[in-house]
Amino acid sequence: MALNIVNQSVEKKAILASKITGKNKTATVEQALEYFLMHHKPAENQHSANREVLRLLEEMSDLPVLDHRSIDEILDYDEFGSCR
Question: Which residues in 50-61 are b (16+ Cβ under 10 Å) and which e?
């Protein structure tokens, strides 16, 4: 099924984008849609990713503490936030 762009502003943007990419309008619109979909995953995939992050955080919190110094001591910051 063909995509028919009847909005003149959208048509102009598609033409400009195709000139920038060096591709025809169809390929340019396809690339833009792929980019959009890659960065705006459906909610179900986002929930799955969130669950995975939570699982990893729980797993990391179970790891033993190997260095009991404070973060500032490890990074060698003084009480004024300056590096020594």
Answer: eeeeeeeeeeee
